[in-house]
């Protein structure tokens, strides 16, 4: 027997056993959404609800700004109340003895450590940098985690001059990177081009690239024209790539605007236009027409490239929210998922609506066959059944056999072609399911209720195990009653 299944065969109310829990395709560990809502209880249209679902999918995690502000307030109070020891190094070493990572392996912030670091920066930053350079373990982790908060308080109380003065000394040590990134983040929030020139001179070649890149992370949107001047003055298109990474969804539109801005030096714009990063970003912008995206990507506008782009986009969008998981747990219908994908990729929806629908169908068919099939309701029955048989043959590798059976039971076997297509699907799936589940799969097949699917299951499994287990194969064949399948049985040896 191959790898055992951890669940059992369960008897259904109708009296036949259904294998409920063969291992399914891996799912996201995302927490489940709100309780399922029955479709009949929804009083709005799928497109409207899909828009809200999509908005939820795009919503960022709860902001941590309030938590950060509260920490800085606590730090400010502790800086004023602490009795500063004569030997701050010894106090930090002692504090590090009880400094522990949290349950996720992250070094936590410490008001006490940050307050001590603030006063050491006030007293002798060069001594602090030299001291920490030789420390390892908890002491090093504690200082690296908490010195940004101390630097922020230095800037708030004393302005940028003391921080600029310490840059040449910081550049001698590994901690210099942390110092410059913190200064870049903070000073970029209220940028002053004259001050930035002083920062560049003080930081030198070693620290300036990091500092310059971090200046753009929180540079105000209303001052974006100044940041563009800064990037041009530095002759660095890479600074533009670092600009406000938290506004990821607007990055493509920014690139397009900069490329169209004739006030920029032509050479600078040419560099931007030739950048692989810019081309890939614009080619990946789902809001643009397909033809424009392919042109940005340097790809010919043909059926093959359009299909590849569509497939990549839909796969990414389906994974962003794990829509198959949402459908499985009743948090969204297949139609709502389709509307959400259309809303997220209007260019695809306009250019290839059927191909987009078919790709969503392929993502949902193994999770909820009935829901996925509902997406094909507008197709003629012949085409709908052909699509379903194609999915039965091409999908369900490693999936729950009960889902495979659910799909087959939506397809009639009322023509020779559909009958044979059904048998082909059983032959393919029985081979892979037997290889993965062994005796448990054989028990599931034999527990199916009387009917064509049980007959085909017996027949296909007998074919799959014939060489490895001829006795099991003979026992399975002995149960077959369908005359057409009996005719296909091999003659006794």
Walk me through what this model shows.
It is a single chain. With 493 residues, this protein is an all-alpha fold. Among the domains are: 1-25 and 381-493, no CATH class; 68-244, no CATH class. It has 28 helices and 2 strands. The chain has helices spanning 46-58, 65-81, 88-96, 111-123, 125-133, 137-158, 161-170, 176-188, 193-215, 224-233, 237-241, 251-260, 266-274, 276-283, 290-296, 303-321, 323-328, 334-344, 346-351, 353-364, 369-374, 381-394, 401-408, 416-437, 439-446, 452-465, 470-478, 483-488, and strands at residues 9-11, 17-19. It has a two-stranded antiparallel sheet. A hairpin with a 5-residue loop joins strand 1 and strand 2. Helix 4 (111-123) packs across helix 6. The chain is elongated and about 95 Å long. Mean pLDDT is 84; it is low at 1-44 and 49-63.
Strands, helices and their partners?
Elements: E1 9-11, E2 17-19, H1 46-58, H2 65-81, H3 88-96, H4 111-123, H5 125-133, H6 137-158, H7 161-170, H8 176-188, H9 193-215, H10 224-233, H11 237-241, H12 251-260, H13 266-274, H14 276-283, H15 290-296, H16 303-321, H17 323-328, H18 334-344, H19 346-351, H20 353-364, H21 369-374, H22 381-394, H23 401-408, H24 416-437, H25 439-446, H26 452-465, H27 470-478, H28 483-488
Antiparallel strand pairs: 1-2
């Amino acid at each position: 027997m191959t790898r055992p299944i951890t669940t059992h065969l369960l008897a259904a109310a109708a009296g036949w056993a259904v294998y409920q829990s063969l291992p399914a395709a891996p799912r996201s560990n995302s927490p489940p959404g709100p309780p399922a809502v029955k479709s009949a209880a929804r009083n709005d249209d799928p497109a409207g609800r899909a828009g809200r679902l999509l908005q939820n999918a795009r919503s960022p995690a709860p902001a941590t700004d309030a938590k950060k502000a509260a920490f800085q307030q606590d730090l400010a109070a502790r800086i004023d109340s602490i009795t500063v020891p004569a030997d701050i190094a010894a106090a930090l070493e002692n504090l590090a003895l009880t400094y522990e990572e949290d349950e996720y392996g992250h070094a936590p912030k410490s008001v006490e450590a940050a307050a001590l670091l603030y006063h050491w920066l006030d007293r002798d930053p060069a001594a602090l940098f030299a001291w920490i350079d030789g420390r390892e373990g908890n002491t090093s982790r504690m200082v690296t985690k908490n010195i940004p908060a101390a630097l922020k308080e230095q800037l708030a109380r004393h302005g940028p001059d003391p921080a600029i003065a310490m840059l040449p000394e910081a550049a001698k040590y590994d901690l210099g990177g942390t110092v410059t990134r913190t200064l870049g983040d903070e000073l970029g929030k209220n940028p002053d081009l004259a001050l930035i020139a002083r920062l560049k001179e003080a930081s030198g070649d070693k620290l300036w690239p990091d500092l310059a890149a971090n200046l753009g992370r929180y540079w105000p949107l209303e001052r974006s024209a100044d940041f563009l001047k800064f990037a041009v003055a530095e002759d660095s298109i890479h600074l533009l790539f670092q600009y406000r990474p938290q506004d990821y969804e607007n990055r493509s539109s920014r690139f397009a605007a900069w490329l169209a801005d004739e006030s920029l030096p032509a050479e600078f714009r040419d560099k931007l236009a030739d950048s692989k990063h810019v081309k890939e970003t614009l080619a990946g912008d789902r809001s643009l027409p397909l033809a424009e995206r392919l042109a940005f990507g340097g790809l010919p506008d043909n059926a093959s490239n359009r299909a590849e782009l569509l497939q990549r986009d839909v796969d990414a969008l389906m994974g962003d929210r794990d829509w198959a998981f949402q459908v499985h747990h009743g948090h969204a219908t297949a139609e709502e998922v389709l509307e959400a994908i259309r809303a997220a990729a209007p260019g695809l929806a306009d250019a290839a609506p059927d191909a987009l629908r078919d790709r969503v169908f392929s993502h949902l068919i193994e999770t909820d066959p009935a829901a996925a099939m509902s997406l094909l309701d507008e197709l003629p029955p012949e085409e709908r059944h052909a699509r379903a048989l194609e999915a039965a043959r091409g999908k369900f590798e490693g999936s729950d056999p009960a889902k495979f059976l659910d799909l087959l039971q939506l397809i009639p076997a009322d023509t020779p072609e559909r009958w044979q297509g059904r048998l082909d699907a059983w032959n393919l799936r029985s081979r892979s399911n037997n290889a993965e589940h062994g005796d448990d799969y054989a028990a599931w097949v034999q527990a199916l209720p009387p009917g064509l699917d049980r007959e085909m299951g017996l027949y296909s499994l007998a074919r799959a195990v014939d060489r490895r287990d001829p006795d099991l194969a003979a026992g399975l064949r002995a149960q077959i009653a369908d005359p057409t399948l009996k005719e296909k049985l091999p003659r006794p040896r």
